Amino acid sequence: MEENLPSPRPLRRWAPLVLATLLIIGSFAGGFFVGRAKGVGQVPAGEGQVTNREAPPPYLFKDVDFNQFWNVWKLVKEKYVGQPVSDVKMFYGAMAGMVAALGDPYSIYLDPEFADKFSQELSGTFEGIGAEIGVKKNQLTVIAPLSGTPAERAGLKSGDHILAIDGADTTGMTVEEAVTRIRGKKGTEVKLMVIRETLKEPKEIAIVRDAIVVVSVKWSVKEAGGKKIGVITISHFNDDTTERFNQAVREVLMQNIDGLALDLRNDPGGFLETAIDVAGEWIHEDVVVVEKFSDGQKKDYLSDGLARLADVPTVVLVNGGSASASEIVAGALQDYGKAKLVGEKTFGKGSVQDYMEFDDGSALKVSIALWLTPKGRSINQEGIAPDVEVKMTEEDYDADRDPQMDKALELLSAKK
């Protein structure tokens, strides 16, 4: 059986995504999995013919003997007990492993099947538990449970370390392997064993998967200290967030508010352009975020918004689930003195990924730069510290108390 291996060529480059591998654990009908060193599923096995096998390119480091790659390939084909061996599976697995060798959880190679499902996820509706996970300090970590999802209802919290999935130990497990175990269809159950700072011992949380629809922006008006305080919550920086945020700003301004609380807690990020649009409601024609490349060059991203909230007293609520685009907005408003940050330190996801598609349907997402705040502060792995730290306890969660929002309202109602 002959398998012709594709020779990938970049077709186009997507705008840099802030989202990276903070993966929404869900599935589109058949499931979602961004694979690292796993190759494709359902690939026909058998002998194959390698095409476009050329001499190593001149930019390859002189001490790298690429013949070793083909020697290993040949030996696997000849000696592996589980014959026949799929050339296509080895081909995609080799490239995934090459990118994984960078040790960067945000750089991944996607085979055609999973590249297609990754693109689908950006559109919005899916099935799963509605949480996003990443790796922090070499541990699988919940970045944020999305608002109104099974994960949130079951009690999953930002910062939870996942110790086991349906009884399987997660030690050494990649994000992608965890996603394959947690994903599933509506109505099915997954059990996560988690530990968090406020728990004395691990806790098992059973979550029933469901259809997830992300409503990225909500707004309301609260009374505090005789003043009207607008509250805008952004749960995700999606492609519809700019429009929804603009509408929310119009609505709260029509209420003649005295201050505004921007709630970015448990917002794992999204599109860079959307973050710039949101920040532009406070910052007029100035730098929102800086991109710093490996060669030291920098690129400034400026706002072109209406800055309708520039003179409105503002507090931004953040926590460990605030990542990426959320940190860009929070950092910019803090740098310019446009808002006080209340809550807990943010996640610290401040790298830039470029996403390139190839003509065989596979794709490469690779970190190309770091984000800096307008004043040059690094976000990556450091996060952003709030001006006023307020922690949420287990008792607060259980009693449905929100001391962080209470502090935000207190600060805003005290403004003259």
Q: What class, by secondary structure content?
A: alpha+beta
Question: Which stretches of 5+ consecutive residues score pLDDT under 50?
Answer: 1-47
Tell me the CATH topology of the domain at 217-413.
Answer: 2-enoyl-CoA Hydratase, Chain A, domain 1
Please state the oligomeric state of the protein chains shown: single chain
Distance between the termini: 78 Å
If you compute it from the alpha carbons, what radius of gyration comes out, rounded to the nearest whole angstrom? 23 Å
Tally of DSSP helical segments: 10
* Overall geometry: globular
Strand segment count? 20
CATH class of the domain at 217-413: Alpha Beta
* SSE pattern, N- to C-terminal: EEHHEHEEHEEHEEEEEHEHEEEHEEEEHH
- The portion of residues forming beta strands comes to 25-35%
The level of helicity is 10-25%
- What is the typical, i.e. mean, pLDDT? 83
Which second-level CATH architecture of the domain at 217-413 applies?
Answer: Alpha-Beta Complex
Quick one: biggest sheet? Answer: 6 strands, antiparallel
Q: Could you name the CATH homologous superfamily of the domain at 217-413?
A: 2-enoyl-CoA Hydratase, Chain A, domain 1
